[in-house]
Amino acid sequence: MSLEDASLDIVPGELLAVVGENGAGKSSLMNVLYGLYHPDAGTFLMDGKPVRLRSPRDAIARGIGMVHQHFMLVPTLTVAENVVLGREPTRRGLLDLDRACDEVATTAKRFGFQLDPRARVDTLTVGSQQKVEIVKALHRGAQVLILDEPTAVLTPQESDELAQVMRGLVAQGRTVVLISHKLKEVLGVADRVAVMRRGRTVAEVRAAETTVSALASLMVGEGSRGAALTGVPAPPGAVVSDARDAQAGLAPLDAQDARGGTAASAPGVFDARREAAATAASGPLDAKSEGAGTVASGPPVLDAKDLRAKGDNSRPALQGVSLTVRAGEIVGIAGVDGNGQRELAEVLTGLRALEGGGGTLLGGPLAGLTPALAKARGVGHVPEDRLARAVVKAMTVEENVALGRHRQPPFARGPWVDFKGRRERATRLLATYDVRPPDPTVALQALSGGNQQKVVVARELDADPKLLVVVQPTRGLDIGAVAQVHARLREAKARGAGVVMVSLDLEEVLALSDRVYVLYEGRVTGHFPRKDLDERELGRRMLGAESDHG
Amino acid sequence: MLEVLHSLLFSTLDAAPALVFAALGAMLSERAGVVSVGVEGMMRTGAFCAAVAALAMPTPVAVLVGMGAGAAIAAVHGFLSIRWRSDQVVSGMALNLVAMAGGTFLLESLFGPNGTPAITQLPRWNVPGLSAVPLLGALSGHAAPTYLALTLPFLFHLLLSRTPLGLRLRAVGDKPHAVATLGLSVSALRWGAVLGGGLMAGLGGAVLSTAVLDRFEQHTPAGLGFMALAAMVFGRWTPLGAFAAALFFAFGNALRIGLASSAPWLLDLVPQGFLLALPYLLTLLVLALQGQRGHAPAALGTPYEQESR
């Protein structure tokens, strides 16, 4: 059940933002508007008349276009082929690709996009692919354009550009519906904001008459209002590009309490959520949230030199990456998706063979590392795709907790499974990490994504890793779980582990990292200590800009 | 020497159609994202039904019956893998087993242990004058399927790369969700491709019992369906590539027959089993050299589910 009594008014010629936490039902509501999902009950009126959308075809025919969060592009086809797919121009029954290219170029130009219609989509940057998606919708005559989390994968620069595109569309009389959970962006571009919570629309406000913290409290629930308002309010007119202001304002929402002053307000916000309450109350972790500001001084746990490795497509994915990680620090790896981050994490955990380079990892050579060797030396791993790499979803929670250490006490005694020891350890971990339900005997797949992730984090941290490699640790998690995972990473750091955190979410990187490396096309294009971190400069490096002064 | 080459070419062109049709059929289905391991079973069913039908009706009509039979098996595969989203490899292998056992059972219960009675083969066409030309003359004297097999790959190429339908088929095999969000029906496209693939595989089977042989033989198609799959893979899921690979495998087949008949002394040196296995060894070798399946459609084998990405 993802939608429950949700209503939404869309006024022509405005930019309406729909905000809400992960799982609040934003995307589901939009998929209903686009005819992909069919509501069990309720009505949909267009220009006052009831309309039934049986498929996206109906929605397209009525001038509704949608840009999905995960792009709906066929990577092996060209830009033009993707845009005309389903309404292809033909000449004598054959595809008229020249005309398709002309049409696409015309549409793109009309809206000010630079796109080569003959380029294959998989050769384009993420930002350009998004433009293809927008052109695809406009080419079909979309009057109402729905964008689902469009900035989730963009650099700050690309986000700015997108904001201008959206305002431009509205200026041309089109209607834009923007789905987002990034409130600073929303307030920068939207005319009106609708707030969703647990499948319902709980408020609709004019963007000019609200603040980030007011929206935040609406998103997480009534009870939190007082607490959330103690955060620094963002100026209502804040523009998307004004990163500094917005960060301050956003902090209470995204639990990025690392930034000094706003730390105090974070636990308050989570108090409001029943799920999160336990963490806040359980205390010891939040006490350490005073921030990543301290400079690490431990010995290096990882000293990698000139790492080279191939990607799954056997093209070079790492082309000479060097990095150092010391005990007691969190090192963020920033970059646009697909620039070698995944391969780097796999190299560090022994899952991917090195083609060249090396160095030391926890006192042993990095070359020839295997997963077993990495584990033995004290590497913990929270992979990006937990269902594929971290857990077995059909096994019970306690079995999953034992995975990897299933031959050691307390999970085994000699050659036998130690059922009692395993139960005790799992039960304790579930309580400490606030996993719901705290029942070690249920199948892991019965847990929500956030709770599954907590199980993974609990298991990896329980092994007391000296180097922790985490990839996209909070993707898809709700706000309470995000806060808990972040707190656990800080806890690991405080215990003296070196943490390598790969994240596509720049906010997360900025919030947690002591140092940040930027990867672009398998090379390090930037390395910033915390004091020099600047969102816009990071964004530049993520797009491949090298340092101005060497 | 020229004579040997001529006869090798001739028997290559005689053996090729079954492989070409089946490879094209499998490719059609797989380009739309549905695994086609069931080709062997579709061929067998097509071959059996065509041979039986040819006892009662003109052979060309019987070939159409064989195509329909292949499509019927494909329909079961479509029902299992598109409608019920079952594992496509398992579904295909199950159909192969059903066709294997069913064919044998029906053959023995209807006709006894000697196989179907002989039928009238498809007529062979002699191009006047051409037969006398060295090598090129090997093109003359084949039945209709051979000439069809020499043209269809180009038509399939045109279909896939130059028509709207082809664009949609390619798209649905690589990213079905993109197709669905444009208001096109993923299942309609896949059904079309699977049934079309069944027709082609059925045709490939029918050719075996009406042109290559003159009856349904107990072991038909004896692994040719799998060889067609190999041709599709080796041809990187393209019509012309699959065509070239199928010709290559057919040549291997012809070589086996040619060697056995033109150089009987070879049988003293090499066990006959080795010669029999030659085409299959060739297939294995080629697939091993090809390496990883880098050219397969991205969504191959993945059932389409609307609410997942």
UniProtKB/TrEMBL annotation, chain A:
Question: Which InterPro entries does the record match to this protein?
Answer: AAA+_ATPase (IPR003593), ABC_carbohydrate_import_ATPase (IPR050107), ABC_transporter-like_ATP-bd (IPR003439), ABC_transporter-like_CS (IPR017871), P-loop_NTPase (IPR027417)
Region Disordered: start and end of each range?
275-300
The question of whether Coiled coil is a record keyword is answered with no
- What are the entry keywords? ATP-binding, Nucleotide-binding, Repeat, Transport
Which CDD domains does the UniProt entry name for this protein?
ABC_Carb_Monos_I (cd03216), ABC_Carb_Monos_II (cd03215)
**Cross-referenced SUPFAM superfamilies:** P-loop containing nucleoside triphosphate hydrolases
The protein's matches in PANTHER family, at most eight in alphabetical order, are given as:
CARBOHYDRATE TRANSPORT ATP-BINDING PROTEIN MG119-RELATED (PTHR43790), GALACTOFURANOSE TRANSPORTER ATP-BINDING PROTEIN YTFR (PTHR43790:SF9)
Q: What is this protein called?
A: ABC transporter ATP-binding protein
Automatic annotation (TrEMBL), chain B:
TM stretches of this protein: 61-82, 94-112, 191-213, 242-263, 269-289
Q: Name one GO molecular function term.
A: transmembrane transporter activity
Where does this polypeptide localize? Cell membrane
Q: Which GO terms describe its cellular component?
A: plasma membrane
Q: Name the predominant localization.
A: membrane
Please give the superkingdom of this protein's source. Answer: Bacteria
Q: How does it sit in the membrane?
A: Multi-pass membrane protein
Does rRNA-binding appear among the keywords? Answer: no
> Pfam families in the record, alphabetically?
BPD_transp_2
Q: What is the name of this protein?
A: ABC transporter permease
Answer whether the UniProt record assigns the keyword Cytoplasm to this protein. Answer: no
Q: What is the species listed in this Swiss-Prot or TrEMBL entry?
A: Corallococcus llansteffanensis
